[in-house]
Amino acid sequence: MQEFLVELTTTVPEGTDPAEVDRRRAAEAVRAAELAATGHLVRLWRPVGELRSIGLWRADDEADLRENVLGTLPLAPWMTPVVTAVQSHPNDPGRNAAAG
To answer: What is the pTM (predicted TM-score) of this model?
Structure first.
């Protein structure tokens, strides 16, 4: 599987029922846990003071990531993803730890 750094910005459409937002956010937490359990969601961060997230994700390729991984998130219709494919750097201090 390939790795991707993904920045997700979620914008709830104006006039959306708050109960719908709450329902989707709860479902989002469940789906994120499922994706983590299957190895697709590796890490997820939120920049301090911001309402966007940055995550390390795994998928077969970018199309698979967008369609079969990110596309399954309940908040996906409201998300704007910025996807960057990444690969291990020879000087990555975590490289040997991950291999061992």
So the answer is: 0.89
